[in-house]
Amino acid sequence: MQISWRDEDILSKCAAVIGVESIAAHDDFFGVGGDSLDAAEISEMLTAETGRDVPMETVLGSPTFADMLTSLRG
Questions:
Q1: What phi and psi values does residue 53 have, to the nearest 5 degrees?
Q2: Using CA atoms, how far apart are residues 23 and 28, in angstroms rounded to an integer?
Q3: Burial 10-31 (b: 16+ CB within 10 A, else e)
Q4: Choice between 1 and 69, residue whose per-residue pLDDT is larger
């Protein structure tokens, strides 16, 4: 998966929510320290960023951030 500048922006915002310096596309949400409260906040952020409803399950159910980004495009 090729990561665009927009994807990098979203990854950066996800990292800020979780409280880590950075996140790579291949990273796992729980592996970088994400929890259900982070998932809810990321869901709200992505809904605002994309203009469409992004359920918390999209964040929690994606094995990696790349998978999450792919589902956002679909």
A1: -65, 125
A2: 9
A3: bbebbbebbeeeebebebebee
A4: 69
Joined tokens for residue 19: 């409280």
What's the one-letter identity of residue 38?
D
Residues 58 and 5: their CA atoms lie apart, in Å, by 21
User: Residue 6, Cβ neighbours under 10 Å: how many?
Assistant: 11
Tell me which amino acid residue 30 is.
F
What residue type is assigned to position 69 of the chain? L
DSSP letter (8 states) at residue 4: P
pLDDT digits (tens, 9 = 90+) for 5-58: 688 999 999 999 999 999 999 999 999 999 999 999 999 999 998 888 999 999
